[in-house]
Amino acid sequence: MAKAPLKRRIADAFMILVPQAPTRRVTVAELTRYLDIDRKTFYNHFDNIDNLMIWIYRDYLATMLGNPVFDEWEKTTPHPDKFDPYSDMPFYARNLQDGTLCQGEYFKRMAYHWENHRQYYSIVFSTSCYVNLVDYIIDLFLPEFRKDVDLYRADREMPDIVADFLAEYHVMGVFGRLRYHFTQTNKFIMQDELEPFWNYAHIMLRESVDSCYEPVERRGLGKLLSSAKHVERYSGFACRCRKH
């Protein structure tokens, strides 16, 4: 059987070594000794350990999105302004059905990767020895969640500060919960009871966007010239709490 590509072997070795040294950083020297390769060979593939960690996560997402399940989904790569080290690798995909983003299958399969490597991710998500991978992930996904807000609001006006808030809140909800789960609990994340909730963030995102508008009846010339009887006007988020 042919050996796996060296880049993949380096990544697999790193994921083995991290749980063996949970309180300190695995070094390039340790990794190259484990693989019986020289340091130059490592640096031919990765700039440093942090770069390797990012590649492990991004390579999984790119491989995942190559599955036929995602053939009809709209795939995206990082925005050029991010200067991402793996700007050519897709990491996110959209499945729009009847005006709703149905992202459950995407987030579920992404969580499988973390679940299958729980020891590794519980360490890299909770230690200061390595790059803050969660910060990287949030920074990576935030522009895409902002686009999701824009997709839901369509041609309706919304203040940028509100759209930014909704994107930030929901991206933190998704990845903050995953980080908490893998660093603070020993629970299996794929419980059957939670199956309907894999798309929870994007269902709530749509409801949050829609709640910011109220219908306005067209009158006069505007009513005559338009086929739509009503338009929607931004009215702000409908808070139902009473003021004291």
Describe this protein's structure:
This protein has 244 residues and is mainly alpha-helical. It has one domain (48-234). It has ten helices and six strands; from the N terminus they run ααααββββαααααβαβ. The protein has helices spanning 6-20, 28-35, 39-45, 49-65, 104-116, 118-124, 133-153, 160-184, 200-210, 220-225; strands at residues 74-76, 92-94, 96-97, 100-101, 213-217, 230-234. Strands 1-2 form a two-stranded antiparallel sheet. A hairpin with a 2-residue loop joins strand 3 and strand 4. Helix 1 (6-20) crosses helix 6 (118-124) and helix 4 (49-65) packs across helix 5 (104-116). The longest helix has 25 residues, at 160-184. The protein is elongated and about 70 Å long. The relative contact order is 0.09. The mean pLDDT is 88.
Number of helices: 10
Average pLDDT: 88
Query: Sheet bearing the most strands, described?
Result: 2 strands, antiparallel
Shape: elongated
Strand order in the sheet with the most strands = 1-2
Helix content: 40-55%
Query: Could you spell the SSE succession in H and E letters?
Result: HHHHEEEEHHHHHEHE
Strand content: 5-15%
User: In total, how many beta strands?
Assistant: 6
Low-confidence stretches: none
Number of domains: 1
Give me the Rg, rounded. Answer: 22 Å
Distance between the terminal alpha carbons, to the nearest Å? 72 Å
Class per helix and strand makeup: mainly alpha
